[in-house]
Amino acid sequence: MKKVYLNPQRPTHYDGAHFIVYLNARPAEYQADENSEPVQGVEYTGTMEDGGTLIECDEWNRDKLINGIIRTKYLQAEEDAIKTHQIQLLQVEAHLDAGTLTEEKRAAYLQEWAEFQAFREEAIALVNTWDNWE
Hints:
Elements: E1 2-5, E2 12-15, E3 18-21, E4 26-30, E5 39-45, E6 53-56, H1 62-70, H2 76-93, H3 103-128
Antiparallel strand pairs: 1-5, 2-3, 3-6, 4-5
Helix pairs in contact: 1-3, 2-3
């Protein structure tokens, strides 16, 4: 669901095991009511009615928030498979594995890693804006 706000939204504690975070931010026109002039706002797209996304996270902790965001796109098993593919690539490159990978497989493994890393870096950058983490 999409929702436009006047100002950027911060995560909120939802219950003992979840936070609502606001992802997929993009500029959008915000209009408080039908009589007001539109101004620049922020639109979020998420699974909740308020445009937020519910993530598994039981406390205000940088690593747990990042992990919760990553889990919105990748299950732990999917992340493990992506990492295993990278190990396979390294083993083949170092001639430690007698198996071979086709060029298509190699390209697919490199692409999935690049996509995972890009999403992970986005999650880290977003979470870093929420607090002065030490």
